[in-house]
Amino acid sequence: MEGREEDVKLGANKFIERQPIGTSAQTDKDYKESPPAPLFEPGELQSWSFWRAGIAEFVATFLFLYITVLTVMGVNRAPTKCASVGIQGIAWAFGGMIFALVYCTAGVSGGHINPAVTFGLFLARKLSLTRAIFYIVMQCLGAICGAGVVKGFQPSRYEVLGGGANVVNHGYTKGDGLGAEIVGTFVLVYTVFSATDAKRNARDSHVPILAPLPIGFAVFLVHLATIPITGTGINPARSLGAAIIYNRDHAWDDHWIFWVGPFVGAALAALYHQIVIRAIPFKTRA
């Protein structure tokens, strides 16, 4: 019996208890709450990294519009949905491009590629107002150029096939479209907050996660759900670029929905994540 007790003690010392996971694994050493970004940071304008980040947002949004609008037009051109990639293919194009582009630009600009994402992160004080405005301007310019290149390749077909512009489809009201844009953008921005949460990464460091993957997958799922309603905006730059280049009255009639909806959805996601999930306003300050 004594020999067995010694074996047990030896085993207990040799094979220590596994590191706790989840909340119990959180310590002050592996995570500290990052300070909120200043509202205005004039020094950013003198930094090359600031301008480089804006250029990255421009190029990423340009490529995003180029690939996705071409995909939409390819589906619209086909005599039947079965003769093309269909709605599923459109959803994969949008989600796949976001996955690829966020992966490529996250280390440079954060990989926003969407004014709604930028707005949500600004409300959470993740970036300054100066940078947020710069990003949104560059995203819109990139979207306009991306849609413009598509039209340059096939101007006549672009006009006939709708140019990938977002509209509220027949059978749905403006309220339906607005609600779809709010909820869809909430899903996207909430996923962005969760996938890039520094506290979660520190706490669950034993669980490998590639942030662009859930973000791209969220875009894919939202497109599957809302393409029949609005064609899926959830990105004001994407909607603006297609509307400007297509430039038809019906593309502008409901255009406000594709700004108000995403911005409201992004604001709700930021509030939910910061107040409910992270409970930042209720934390005691050291």
From TrEMBL:
Keywords annotated in UniProt: Acetylation, Membrane, Transmembrane, Transmembrane helix, Transport
Broad class of the protein's primary localization: membrane
GO molecular function terms attached to this record: channel activity
Membrane topology: Multi-pass membrane protein
Alphabetical list of InterPro entries matching this protein: Aquaporin-like, Aquaporin_transptr, MIP, MIP_CS
Cross-referenced Pfam families: MIP (PF00230)
One annotated Gene Ontology cellular component of this protein: membrane
Cellular localization per UniProt: Membrane
Transmembrane residue ranges: 50-73, 85-112, 132-150, 209-229, 256-277
The organism's place on the tree of life at top rank: Eukaryota
NCBIfam families referenced in this protein's UniProt entry, alphabetically: MIP
Family in the record: Belongs to the MIP/aquaporin (TC 1.A.8) family. PIP (TC 1.A.8.11) subfamily.
Protein name: Aquaporin PIP1-3
Organism encoding this protein: Herrania umbratica
